[in-house]
């Protein structure tokens, strides 16, 4: 009888500790789970390089590609936007997404291509599925604001 009670107690404690550790991991902000600002900047750099090279969408980013300074400014602005969006300490100070995309005639196919580029970047950095899903859930609703054709 004592052995059954002891085993049950150990089982309960292991379950409680495992549950607590899992809860602690998911209670971190997405920003922290992604790796903080170094990870946000690395993902942003790779992602921007991909979209600037992607013939399906790069016409919408011609200004960003026009000079190295423009490219760096775009990367910095996007990094701040992503950082703030995932719960980081950054403050995005640029225009809202509607203002930026109004009159740009962004198509649904173009938006989807950019998402594919983002997923390719996340895969290249081996971002875990949960964090990738969480990020896409944050950015996905922007489609209704960005696509205006």
Q: Number of helical segments?
A: 9
Element order: H for helix, E for strand: HHHHHHHHH
CATH homologous superfamily descriptor = Globins
Could you tell me how far the N terminus lies from the C terminus, measured between alpha carbons in angstroms? Answer: 72 Å
Give the low-pLDDT segments.
1-24
The CATH topology, please? Globin-like
Radius of gyration: 21 Å
Class inferred from helices and paired strands: mainly alpha
β-strand percent reads under 5%
The residue fraction in helices comes out at over 70%
CATH architecture: Orthogonal Bundle
> How many structural units, i.e. domains?
1
How many β-strand runs?
A: 0
Principal-axes geometry comes out as: globular
- Average pLDDT figure: 85
Name of the top-level CATH class: Mainly Alpha
Main sheet record: none
């Amino acid at each position: 009888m004592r052995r059954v009670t002891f085993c049950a107690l150990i089982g309960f404690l292991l379950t409680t500790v495992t549950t607590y550790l899992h809860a602690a991991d998911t209670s971190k902000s997405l920003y922290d789970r992604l790796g903080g600002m170094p990870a946000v900047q690395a993902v942003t750099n790779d992602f921007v390089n991909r979209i600037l090279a992607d013939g399906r969408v790069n016409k919408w980013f011609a200004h960003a590609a026009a000079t190295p300074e423009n490219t760096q400014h775009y990367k910095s602005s996007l990094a701040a936007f992503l950082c703030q969006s995932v719960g980081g300490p950054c403050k995005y100070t640029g225009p809202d997404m509607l203002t930026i995309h109004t009159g740009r005639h962004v198509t649904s196919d173009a938006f989807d291509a950019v998402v594919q580029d983002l997923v390719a970047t996340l895969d290249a950095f081996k971002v875990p599925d949960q964090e990738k899903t969480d990020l896409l859930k944050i950015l996905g609703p922007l489609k209704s604001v960005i696509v205006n054709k």
